[in-house]
Specification:
Elements: H1 2-24, H2 29-97, H3 106-110, H4 145-157, H5 161-174, H6 181-194, H7 198-211, H8 218-232, H9 235-248, H10 253-265
Helix pairs in contact: 1-2, 4-5, 5-6, 6-7, 6-8, 7-8, 8-9, 8-10, 9-10
Length: 266
C-alpha cells in the first residue's frame, strides 16, 4: 500500500513537472526520457521495499502463530501438574492426621531398616521417598515430622554425620511424640558411633532401650551399646548387653552378630 501511494505521488510529480515544462516552452524529449527513467527507478525501488515489508509481515505472523501453538500445551501441562500436586498434598495431610485409621501412616512408609553393625552383612537402606520431602531445615514451621526425619537420615546416608547429629537432635526436640522418635534416637546413636563418640552413642541407644522398650529398634540398640562399650574398653558392659540380645531377642539378626562378637571378646 505504501508503494502504491509513493507510485501515485511520483506519477503526480511527473505530470506536474511535465505540464510545467510544456507551459514554459522549454521541454525537450531528452528531459522526458530522463524523468521517465528516474520514475521507473523509484517505482522499482518501492516495489522491492513493498515486497520486503510483506515478507517481514508474514514472518511475524508465522512466529506469533507458532508461539501461541506451543504455549497452549505447556500451559495445560503446568495446570495439570499443579492439580496433581494439590491432590498429593491433600492426601498426605489426611494420612498424617489419622494415624489410628486403617490406612498405613506416612511414617510407616519411610521408617529406616533394622540396626546393623559396621562392616557386617546388614546395611541400612535409604527410606522410601515421599512427597513430603522438603529442602527446609528441621524445626522450620510447616515441616512435617516425616520430612524432618528424612532430612537428617539423608545426611547420615551421605556420610554427613555432624549434620545428622544436629538433625536428629532437633527432630526429637521439635517432635517428641512422633512415631519416628525411637528411630531418631537410634540413628542419632549411629551418627555418634561413626564419629567415634562412643559415650554419646551409648546415651542415644539407651534412650531407645529405656524410653521405647516396645520399639523394633531395641535389639539393634542393645547390640550397638555392646559394641560401643567394647570400643571404650568396658568389656564387662559390652558382654552384658551382647548377652541381653541373645537372651531377649534370640531369633533376631542382631543375635547372630552378638554371638560372634562375644566369641571375640572371650
Amino acid at each position: 500500500m505504501h508503494g502504491s501511494r509513493l507510485l501515485v505521488s511520483a506519477t503526480s510529480l511527473l505530470m506536474v513537472f511535465s505540464v510545467g515544462l510544456l507551459f514554459s516552452g522549454c521541454a525537450k524529449h531528452s528531459d522526458f526520457v530522463d524523468i521517465r527513467e528516474e520514475l521507473r527507478a523509484v517505482v522499482k525501488t518501492q516495489d522491492q521495499e513493498q515486497k520486503r515489508l510483506e515478507g517481514l509481515t508474514r514472518r511475524v505472523q508465522t512466529l506469533e502463530a507458532v508461539k501461541e501453538k506451543d504455549a497452549d500445551p505447556l500451559r495445560q501441562r503446568l495446570d495439570d501438574l499443579a492439580a496433581r500436586l494439590t491432590k498429593l498434598e491433600s492426601r498426605m495431610a489426611r494420612l498424617e492426621e489419622s494415624p489410628g485409621s486403617g490406612t498405613p501412616s506416612l511414617s510407616s512408609k519411610v521408617e529406616p531398616p533394622p540396626a546393623t553393625d559396621l562392616g557386617k552383612s546388614i546395611k541400612p537402606t535409604k527410606p522410601s521417598p515421599t512427597p513430603e520431602t522438603s529442602p527446609l531445615l528441621p524445626g522450620v514451621p510447616g515441616l512435617s515430622p516425616t520430612s524432618a526425619f528424612n532430612l537428617a537420615y539423608n545426611d547420615y546416608l551421605n556420610g554427613r554425620y555432624d549434620m545428622a547429629v544436629i538433625g536428629f537432635q532437633r527432630f526429637v526436640k521439635d517432635f517428641p511424640t512422633a512415631s519416628l522418635v525411637p528411630n531418631a534416637y537410634y540413628w542419632l546413636g549411629e551418627s555418634y558411633y561413626n564419629l567415634k563418640d562412643y559415650v554419646r552413642a551409648i546415651q542415644a541407644y539407651e534412650q531407645v532401650v529405656t524410653e521405647h522398650p516396645g520399639s523394633e529398634k531395641v535389639p539393634a540398640a542393645l547390640y550397638k551399646i555392646g559394641l560401643s562399650a567394647s570400643e571404650t574398653g568396658d568389656t564387662g558392659k559390652a558382654k552384658k548387653y551382647l548377652k541381653r540380645v541373645l537372651e531377649e531377642f534370640a531369633m533376631s539378626e542382631e543375635a547372630k552378630l552378638a554371638k560372634n562378637r562375644l566369641a571375640e571378646l572371650r
